[in-house]
Amino acid sequence: xxxxxxxxxxxxxxxxxxxxxxRIGGLASGLDxxxxxxxxxxxxxxxxxKLKQQKQTLEWQRDAYRDMNLQLTAFRDMTLNMRLQSSFxxxxxxxxxxxxxxxxxxxxxxxxxxxxxKVTQLATSATNTSSSGVSKDSNNKISSTGKLYxxxxxxxxxxxxxxxxxxxxxEKVSVTRAGKEFNLKKLGTSTVENVNSVSVSGQAYxxxxxxxxxDSSQNQVFIDQKxxxxxxxxxxxxDSTIDINYTAVHKDNISISSPTKEVRLSHVxxxxxxxxxxxxxxxxxxxxxxxxxxxxxxxxxxxxxTRASSPDNLGENEFYVDTETGKVTxxxxxxxxxxxxxxxxxxxxxxxxxxxxxxxxxxESFKFDGRDSLTTVTNKIxxxxxxxxxxxxxxxxxxxxxxxxxxxxxxxxxxxxxxxSSFxxxGLNLDENxxxxxENAKFVLNGLETERTSNTFTVNGVTFTVKDKFDADNGDAPxxxxxxxxxxxxxxxxxxxxxxxxxxIDNIQGKTRExxxxxxxxxxxxxxxxxxxxxxxxxxxxxxxxxxxxDQQLNGLLSKMRMDFYTPLSTSSSEYNQLAAIGIxxxxxxxxxxxxxxxxxxxxxxxxxxxxxxxxxxAADGDTPAEQGISRRLRDSVSQTMDSITQRxxxxxxxxxxxxxxxxxxxxxxxxxTMEARLNQKEQGYWSQFAAMEKQMQKMNEQMNYxxxxxxxxS
Length: 715
Hints:
Layout: H1 3-6, H2 11-20, H3 33-81, E1 91-95, E2 101-105, E3 112-121, E4 125-129, E5 163-164, E6 169-174, E7 179-183, E8 191-200, E9 203-208, E10 220-223, E11 229-236, E12 241-255, E13 262-264, E14 270-271, E15 276-282, E16 300-307, E17 318-322, E18 327-330, E19 339-357, E20 360-369, H4 374-382, E21 388-393, E22 398-406, E23 416-417, H5 422-427, E24 441-445, E25 448-452, E26 456-459, E27 462-466, E28 470-471, E29 479-485, H6 487-512, H7 525-529, H8 533-543, H9 552-566, E30 584-586, E31 596-598, H10 600-609, H11 611-619, H12 630-649, H13 660-710
Helix pairs in contact: 3-6, 3-12, 3-13, 6-10, 9-12, 10-11
């Protein structure tokens, strides 16, 4: 259906619109008022429709610019890759026996050949394994997940040296970075009770009760009892050691959800449990709601229980604590909704380990309580900075620990020091004298006998990995490793870059040369309603065509990029100082707008002869375009055009007031709103005039009927 015909098909729609507004005309005159007013308003709406078409065109143009910026962004990102050495100077390595020696090389490694004539020893990690089974009874082995305090009798005698948090905890904090604030790691979820002493590298510090009391001229420290955070009055230097001895109390908050006589505290192996436990709860009315006082606060009730020495015959207000398991039994059911706090100390044991690593000596101490399991112990040690991996094997009933690094870092001496920790030496049957390994890889490279702590090592940018022992003196074939340029990878990268450039040229030229169909403006709402979806799609395809035709910014970018490619690199001493020298030229078809084509043989020759020169042709830095490589020039040119397009069309992060098209859209929206308001007033005026006419005609009809009735005529 032609668009011109659509303009005449509106009676039904307009009638429906006016019915929706409860406007009914023509009752007296018999005229189709809605149609008459609609026809009168149609001409009035032509300027508004033109503004809406302008708005739609601007929105399409804005989106077209933004889509072009996305394409330019992708190409600009690629120019960055073409400034990386890895895009041009990658190396390929070849081993004569990769099952014995493998190798890789970085871009700056020199080309050449290395020969390993022998590998007499592979690097190994220091390991230590239990000398005998960990369990006291092989028929009743320990459980790796059981609570250590509860299964302590399954270990060998003397496995645990239990200490008491109420007697004291010794903690060492190694200062790796200068500062004033440090944390106690052994405190866990307990609270500092008393601090017996604090010293820094042998210098005593006084503990103050309030952080505001710290005096920078004095050796003082404040300790947050709940968090264990230490704040010193002075900056503690790196490599210092903080020694602190303190006691810690644990406080369990108990909440009773339903009546019960038994609760279980969070720890086992308890000492110094509170002699009294007081439960409080909110007093309720008959409806179960909280009773409140005059200030609106809940009224509370409480009940105190006294500790008994035996679980037998408990009085109603007594409780008994099983210090081994943490189970608390009361003489009667506890009130639902009640709560209480229970304070106590508990037993713990410590482990200290020292390892010799590539980063130096690492020492750590660990605190474990009776709730912890063997799995907890191993996990905590494995995740520390010691560089140890340990696990318990249930089948052999043995513990093994090994360094995560290979090599000898202690001149043939012990790599993992146990410090006589009873849990390690008696509980896990580990002995420093049983340690094995911790050896360096030994080999002969290009006639030089040397060694490394790891089986993987780097020489002049070439990383070797020795996998097996061999000796050319005993008839084994030596292993040669050759390093050369990976020319094919560089060719592939350059080809991909040229292909993306040619695609960009196609896309830009496609938009700037696209035909403009001036007879196909954007459809009005009324026109759109009269077309099918397919007809709308075909119409808008032509309406959107040519939005960027002859765009100066994009045409300027094409010219600038051609110049970027063709300008020789003035700072290059290589014969490959311009694109044509490496086999990249423009196509013979001038209509293609400067597309590039590659002579692969010539490009390969250039990369093999002078890869550094080819790399600089693309990646060189400089103050002027002539001193800059092609990728740098292109990146600057594309970025400038993208900025110009953003100023014109914005992006998703900008509001309309921040770019040109957006400002134009705001202006058009204001003009549309103003004109719509005037049209509404005009239409209302037409309706008022027709209503007045109808009223007069109604009077005339009434007078006519009266006169007719006087002459004896009846309707």
